[in-house]
Model the fold of this input.
Amino acid sequence: MTLIQLCGDVALEPNHEDPESMIPDRSSAPTASISKDRVESEAAGDFDHDDCQEQSIAQMERYAIDKQIGKGGMGLVYHAYDSTFDREVAIKVLLKNYQGRDEACQRFFQEARTTARLQHPGIVSVYDMGISDDGQPFFAMKLVEGRTLSELMKTENKTQLQYSRLLDVFARVCQTIAYAHSHQTVHLDIKPSNVMVGAYGEVHVMDWGLSRQLGKSPIELTPICPAAVEHISDEQLSMILSNSKIIGTPSYMAPEQARGHHISVRSDVFGLGALLCEILTGKPPYEGSSFRRIYRRAARGSLDKTYQRLDACDADPAIIALAKRCLAREENARPADAGTIATQITTYLESSKERAERDLCRFFELSMDLFCIASLDGYFKRVNSNFSRVLGYSDSELISKPFIEFLHPDDVQQTIRAIGTLAQGDSIAAFCNRYRDSGGNYRWIQWNAKSIPQDNTIFAVARVVDGPDG
Done:
């Protein structure tokens, strides 16, 4: 590898001190990016290399493009209709800026091939790729409707329910990345905006445009000395990074990835730790007032403040410890791969459920008729036989649908408010609503319930009553 001679004899080893407050900020407005990602993540250190040129909608006989639904550093994503298979799809089209560049076109199609090769429920299926009738490179993929993890963390209330849900999302991200690692593929841009949570709770890891297949071909990187970027503008830094072929999003990058030394599955492990860090603390590992400062912190592995934020959050110590292991500055101190993290987080979540199951017995000893475990997102997890006796449905029918579907329409909103009360950790007593039985009749049921928000679990006992007054 050729080293860019920018820093004389300054060592390439990271300096863990963070003296940036003493450095004057001579950076220009953010204009550069070393990550092909969404526009909304500028605060995380994403800035586009080039201003986007005006681009016409690709013309294709098979696909009728409706509207733009997303944008990355290299492509625009559209909602479209596939006339061959009569289905909605997403179409990604290479940005006009890059359409005349052979290397960019190759990388674009490589993203499609990589995504198609990795057949996993957490990776969006690719259906087709090629050149549109008007000469624009594209590929078609499964349309995933939902919100990014970044959007979920910004918009949902900060409750124990959300924390439990986010940990479940994180576990599924780990499982997806573990599958990729088992196929010698690293993602290299793991972050909340690249995780999509679908309308039915499905989790997809998106945007494999920066991924690399280890061992198949040499990965050319040009090491950069962190000290070399102390007194240059963001625009100058962007040009250096572009020439070095360093890739990723600085706020979430492993130190060795940011410095351009090399990449490995443990670079993704750091990315998973960065994702978990933001779930726990609300912030990525690296922050700064400019792209240059964020990048320097990443390249130096300046993580002391990050560790302090993790220690100060109110999460379970076991989860905090896992995040800190993943964010270790030295590669060998991190878990070996995503599979190791997936096992650990799954074990943690399952142990939480086992605790809930043990607690269930205490609730079932009460003398009410109906007993259940439910989730705070509106599903029965387990019901006793009295539910079938009273309502006439099988256990599988009750568990497979949101319980709101069984409610009288007039009782839906008050039931949602009651679930909100439980999500805050408060109990409810003598709450009444009407459930529709299998014969179409409504039965008044009175509930007493307690939740364990961090486990996304409700324990409830109930009995049939004559009306809301019992």
In short: The chain is about 35% helix and 20% strand. The mean pLDDT is 81. The first strand starts at residue 63 and ends at 71.
